[in-house]
Specification:
Helix 1 packs antiparallel against helix 8, helix 2 packs parallel to helix 8 and helix 11 crosses helix 13. Helix content is 38%, strand content 15%. It binds pyridoxal-5'-phosphate.
């Protein structure tokens, strides 16, 4: 069997162990310490954000966001349908109801038109949604200007799920800094990894200070353990944060490498009319191209997504269909949704290609061989 080519693998920079050693030397083996502070500062500087709290996971950051915004059981929360389930699951943790919004064709992210339709419809039913969670999928910025202005107009707080979009920008401004709260993930397959981890980003220092309080069991100031709020154990460990500090040193390089992957695929697909390579709609959008993705038109191509996926699998190369929209998932099928078929079409015809920042020339040659096989047969 040939060596496996992963879709998105961890890629260490080299200094991660140095920071982990310093945690051991200082005996900071805890969910606080110099690496947590250092990692938060690195993120703040990189994003140009006012405040960042490092947490145990992106999912925890989304859950805390909803708690911080006062979302309660029975409330409605609007969210992108075309996403990973971790965007929407936390809504149900507090007993609130997800209302799912379909994508538009330019960025594959939340449609501003459908968002406004949904808000008007809910208001006309006497229900005001408590928050909006917009996702920047595969690193591509959503139409965040329009979405933020709708959120403002209707006075609904905006949470940006930028789990896949660290290093991406819209009109030069870092994703994660447009909403009331932004969330990041450092899971093993993201553009940088801490093995597992996340962060909460905001311009509102008070919200982040409350996030730090709630994420460390919400202990009141008293010599004994006293609690007047329900707390969580969501803070990032000082060991894990050490990996993050090392990874921040190479983040810009990782963005450049992922963007080079996109260019590599562009070289092949520019001659294939039946395939759309997912690309920035204009120079306002700067994607980290976390994953390079394509849409195949099966009628024109004489082949389809599944044939291509299986051809890659045969060569021990990992690819994956695009996210299955949440309104099509057994767990969220019953939820209210505002859809026009865009995400369903993407799911049926789209594929994520191997996009690791450490993709070798040898791997690229194996990938090209499969692409040539599948697309020149027809
Ligand atoms: C990875 C991811 C998350 C969850 O982040 P974790 O750190 O794995 O909990 C949330 N939303 C999206 C879009 C993601 O890709």
């Amino acid at each position: 069997m040939k060596e496996k080519i992963w879709m998105s693998s961890p890629h260490l920079g080299g200094n991660e162990l140095k920071y982990i050693h310093s945690a051991f030397e200082g005996n900071w083996i805890a969910p606080l310490g110099p690496n947590v502070d250092g990692f938060e500062n690195d993120l703040k500087t990189y994003l140009g954000a006012k405040e960042v709290a490092a947490l145990s996971a992106g999912t925890a950051a989304i859950h805390l966001s909803l708690v911080l915004l006062g979302v309660q059981a029975g409330d409605e929360v609007l969210a992108s349908s075309f996403t990973f389930s971790a965007t929407v699951n936390p809504i149900t943790y507090i007993g609130a109801k997800p209302v799912l919004i379909d994508s538009e064709k330019d960025t594959w992210n939340m449609s501003p038109e459908l968002l406004e339709t949904a808000i008007k419809d809910r208001l006309s039913n006497g229900i005001k949604p408590k928050a909006i969670i917009v996702v920047h999928l595969y690193g591509m910025p959503a139409k965040i200007d329009q979405i933020a202005s709708i959120a403002n107009r209707y006075d609904i707080p905006l949470i940006e799920d930028a789990a896949e979009a660290l290093g991406s920008r819209y009109k030069g401004k870092a994703l994660g800094t447009f909403g009331k709260l932004g969330i990041l993930s450092f899971n093993g397959n993201k553009i940088i990894t801490t093995s597992g981890g996340g962060a909460l980003v905001s311009e509102d220092a008070e919200l982040i200070s409350k996030a730090r309080f709630l994420s460390t069991q919400a202990r009141d100031t008293a010599p004994h353990y006293q609690h007047s709020h329900i707390g969580f154990n969501y803070r990032m460990s000082n060991i894990v944060a050490g990996i993050g500090r090392g990874q921040m040193e190479v983040l810009d390089l990782r963005v450049a490498q992922r963007r080079a992957n996109h260019q590599f695929y562009e070289g092949f697909f520019k001659q294939i009319e039946s395939v759309e390579l997912f690309s920035e709609p204009s120079t306002d959008y700067f994607s980290n191209y976390w994953l390079t993705t394509i849409i195949i038109n099966p009628e024109k191509a004489g082949t389809n997504r599944e044939t291509l996926r299986l051809a890659f699998e045969q060569e021990n190369i990992e690819t994956r269909p695009l996210w299955k929209p949440m309104h099509m998932q057994p767990i969220f099928h019953h939820c209210l949704s505002y859809t026009d078929g865009t995400a369903e079409h993407l799911f049926e015809n789209g594929l994520c290609l191997p996009s690791s920042s450490n993709l070798t020339d040898e791997s690229k040659a194996r990938i090209l061989k499969v692409l040539n096989q599948v697309f020149t047969k027809h």
